[in-house]
Design goal:
Layout (H helix, E strand, L loop, with lengths): L3 E4 L4 H13 L4 E4 L10 H6 L7 E4 L2 E4 L1 H11 L10 H18 L5 H9 L5 H23 L14 H16 L7 H11 L2 H5 L12
Parallel strand pairs: 1-2
Antiparallel strand pairs: 1-3, 3-4
Helix pairs in contact: 1-3, 1-7, 4-6, 4-7, 7-8
């Protein structure tokens, strides 16, 4: 039985998971969750995933939330092609960049935080965009400093890793916020290498079934 991905086309975290599945060549069934209609808050979805977020992955009777956990499961279950290096220290370095994106940049710029800034705190659009730019730029500077000088074309060498997977959707978010990835040469190089891959292109939000509803 194929795993079931609970997905929303525009979700940054779900986008990461789609890239990982495609790079691994692992087939999955897709269950769309229409975030714009608050479907993720429904009793039905909460019964499946109490966290109420996307993505989540159904593996048999188990629901696995959180994109990094899902990618780790993929790596351990389908080790070829690898998304992490063989050396433990190198693996940790790759994870450190992936987690910088997933834990330090993205959570400050996701939908529910931005809506809170606008609604509960009453910030105008300019202030919210400034918030987004601040934290994206802060994170990108850290990744650029850590990965500059590598041989490329990807962040950690000749093949994509979990770090590159997390980078791609975050660059999309950065552009929306007004941050140009070309200001960060190493990130720009890795992003270009990733987006040239058919597997990455197929994971793009515009190529998902529910994009037509937007």
């Amino acid at each position: 039985m194929k795993p079931v991905l609970y997905d929303f086309f525009r979700s940054t975290a779900a986008w990461r998971v789609r890239i990982a599945f495609n790079l691994k060549g692992v087939a999955y069934d897709r269950h769309g969750v229409w975030i714009r209609g608050e479907e993720h808050k429904s009793a039905t979805y909460r019964a499946a995933n109490p966290q109420g977020l996307v993505p989540a992955l159904g593996v048999g009777e188990t629901i696995l939330p959180q994109s990094i956990a899902i990618i780790d499961w993929l790596e351990e279950t389908y080790p070829t092609p690898p998304l992490l290096p063989a050396d433990p220290l190198d693996r940790a370095l790759v994870r450190s960049v992936a987690l910088l994106v997933a834990c330090d940049i993205h959570p400050l710029n996701n939908r529910r935080v931005l809506e809170y800034l606008k609604g509960e705190l009453g910030l105008d659009e300019a202030a919210v965009k400034a918030w987004e730019r601040t934290w994206v730029a802060e994170g990108f500077r850290g990744i650029e400093a850590q990965c500059a000088g590598g041989q490329g074309p990807f962040l950690f060498g000749a093949t994509p890793t979990m770090a590159d997977i997390c980078l791609v959707p975050q660059v999309g978010n950065a552009a929306r916020a007004g941050v140009d990835v070309n200001d960060y040469p190493t990130l720009a190089r890795a992003h270009a290498a990733m987006t040239a891959l058919p597997e990455v292109q197929a994971a793009h939000p515009d190529r998902q079934p529910d994009a037509a509803k937007a």
